[in-house]
Design goal:
Elements lengths: L1 H14 L5 H22 L2 H8 L8 H36 L5 H5 L2 H23 L11 H28 L2 H21 L15 E4 L4 E6 L1 H10 L4 E3 L6 E2 L4 E5 L5 H8 L2 E4 L9 H14 L7 H18 L5 E6 L2 E7 L3 H16 L3 H18 L4 H21 L3 H10 L1
Helix pairs in contact: 2-6, 4-6, 4-7, 6-7, 8-11, 8-12, 11-12, 11-13, 12-14, 13-15, 14-15, 14-16
């Protein structure tokens, strides 16, 4: 029962990433509030306020109808204008930076909440407008409800001003990369803080029973703690064979088990693998490396030709790699000091190769970019220290490959001498 509840809560949490979630939620709340106000009007709240605080109540039918009609038309215009700007932002981000940035921009909760405020206010004003009786006297007019419509309009105007500010900041690539960096940094620091690894605590799983995936998509999240509880209950160890964030096809090996499992247990474990058609940095820090690398590569394309953005991107990559060095290449999930689950991750060698391979391919002709990349690699080598020979060898290999590629395309002897002097 507990596993089913957690599974349901995870699905609800995934809904919050959809662009329509918060607008729909606020629209429903707006409808509920509308009927609460109508109920209060039916019980004479406007009559009471008109007798007690007449300045708070609009007691003219034509004025009320004109205000509400104007509010509805104005709010629809503001909403159309606001989210036309969102489409422009998404189009520019896709063209100038990277299409991979779009899921993160679309899931901006502040913009979703502003859209929800607009929709809730439009629905509220529309239903209150319908409720007004054309031939009613001042005591039948929902003056108190109209007062709230004015308040909602003021709030929406404030939200519109904030939206203009937010969209003007969000379209700047430095702010986009900074957001990606901070989310990825927090995710990696959380993983490092909760990481527990001892190589001898988990047996070799090469000959274990394999279980395939029944669906395809990006592996967005794995509830490893719940899988560990299942493994403990069944006195078995589980090796999660797929890396979170990668695209998984049907029939790919999803996990391995120390012994053969019953169908019910297999289904229970499979439920804790969440698949998606899009990717988010919040769930997978590796995506931050991909996104920032693609920004740098796109900036160096002939159509964009923006080496300054590429240099900034390399600075962010340098900071991310400096944090990633602290993380182990594999992690175990423990219960009572017993490792029940092994979780596969993108190892450091693969990660730095994927980043450097793209940058070397598209940026090796630019002396300044090559210099920046060498500074990044030597900085990482210094952080690693002499104790971690494996990581040092990986970084040395990338330095050698970068210099080799630069020598093939840079013909100026002075530039080559300068690059070699850094190395």
């Amino acid at each position: 029962m507990k596993d089913k509840l957690l599974f349901f809560l995870r699905k609800i949490y995934r809904l919050t990433d959809k662009i329509a979630f918060y607008p729909t939620l606020l629209a429903v709340l707006g409808l509920v509030f509308t009927y609460v106000l109508i109920y209060l009007e039916e019980n004479g709240i406007s009559k009471y306020l008109l007798d007690t605080f007449p300045s708070l109540v609009i007691n003219n039918t034509e004025t009320a109808r004109s205000l509400l009609t104007t509010f509805v038309g104005g709010l629809i215009s503001i909403m159309v204008f606001s989210f036309s700007m969102v489409m422009i932002l998404l189009n520019q981000a896709s063209s100038n930076f990277s299409p991979r940035l779009l899921p993160g921009l679309i899931s901006n909760r502040r913009h979703q909440i502003i859209l929800g405020l607009y929709i809730a206010s439009i629905l509220y004003c529309t239903f209150i407008l319908v409720y007004i009786e054309p031939n009613g006297d001042k005591y039948q007019l929902p003056g108190f409800a109209v007062l709230f419509a004015i308040i909602f309009m003021v709030v929406c105007l404030g939200a519109f001003i904030y939206f203009i500010h937010s969209i003007s900041q969000g379209i700047q690539i430095n702010n986009i990369m900074d957001k990606i960096f901070n989310i990825s940094k927090q995710r990696m620091l959380y993983l490092i803080e909760n990481e527990k690894y001892n190589e001898g605590d988990f047996p070799n799983s090469s000959n274990w029973d394999e279980y395939e995936s029944k669906q395809s998509g990006y592996l967005q999240n794995v509830s490893v703690k719940n899988i560990a509880n299942i493994a403990k209950d069944n006195k078995v160890k589980i090796d999660v064979a797929v890396v979170k964030g990668l695209f998984i096809s049907e029939k790919n090996t999803l996990f391995k088990s120390e012994k053969e499992l019953e169908d019910e247990v297999i289904d229970s474990i499979t439920e804790h693998f969440d698949f998606s058609k899009s990717e988010f940095v919040d769930d997978n820090y590796v995506l931050a490396f991909k996104q920032i690398t693609e920004v740098a590569v796109k900036a160096m394309s002939p159509g964009i030709n923006d080496p300054g953005t590429a240099l900034n991107a390399i600075d962010y990559l340098s900071q991310l790699f400096a944090i990633r060095i602290q993380k182990k290449d594999k992690s175990f999930i423990y219960i009572d000091d017993v490792a029940y689950v092994s979780m596969a991750t993108v190892n450091f060698k693969t990660l730095i190769f994927q980043v450097m391979a793209e940058l070397r391919t598209y940026c090796k002709h630019d002396v300044v970019i090559v210099e920046k990349l060498l500074i990044m690699l030597f900085h990482l080598k210094k952080i690693v220290g002499k104790e971690n020979v494996n990581y040092r060898n990986i970084i040395d290999e990338e330095i050698a490959n970068l210099i080799l590629d630069a020598e093939d395309v840079i013909t100026n002897e002075r530039d080559l001498s300068y690059i070699k002097s850094i190395a």
